[in-house]
Fold this protein.
Amino acid sequence: MEAFTRAAYRVVRCDMRGFGDSELLPGPFSNLDDLEALLGELELDRIALVGASYGGRIALELTLTHPERVWALVLVGSGLRDIDWSEDVTRGFEEEEAVIERGDLEAAVELNLRMWVDGPTRTAADVDPEVRVRVAEMQRRAIEVQLAVADAGPGEEFDPPASTRLGEVACPTLVLVGELDQPDILRVADQIADGIPDARKATIPQTAHVPNMERPDEFNELVLGFLSAARS
């Protein structure tokens, strides 16, 4: 984040429920409502949104809900609610869920790292071990938090889905994706970039689903350059 504060941006990191240190209570909740409430609490009326993976999906939905509040949008390996997952990724989800049900937290974390940090074309030996350690810490924390309150979860709907409303996004948009990410994510990146008018798309080489962590200098250069152009 220091690269962005040095560029004179005020940076706010949203700690979504179920992933970090925000309290997770029983029952359904809305990540979109949480983000709206955070922006209201901080009195932020015009923002640039940067969202990665699941966070990208929420960022896109907030942009569609409150287009007047977002002056720039950056989507990094973003998901969509109605993504048609491949058999390989679906199998990976099922394997991770199965080992969690058996109580093998470390195995679940390793499966997650293999699918998202290593990606489909690399092994653990090809990835910076420090990146794997940091992502493992995040993922382990998320699993522990969500297991502790098993009957909590996102309950919001977004209808019609964002995938059918991409043409409504009017702000400058940058779609970023790691070259070695899952084919499903690469396909969604193309879908989003093709659907949002005048969206710019960039691929960061030699990285999978966490390009901001594997190639931070390239990531920061791309995002800061985009934001500077969008703000001018």
Remarks:
- The longest strand covers residues 70-76.
- The chain has nine helices and six strands.
- The chain has a mean pLDDT of 95.
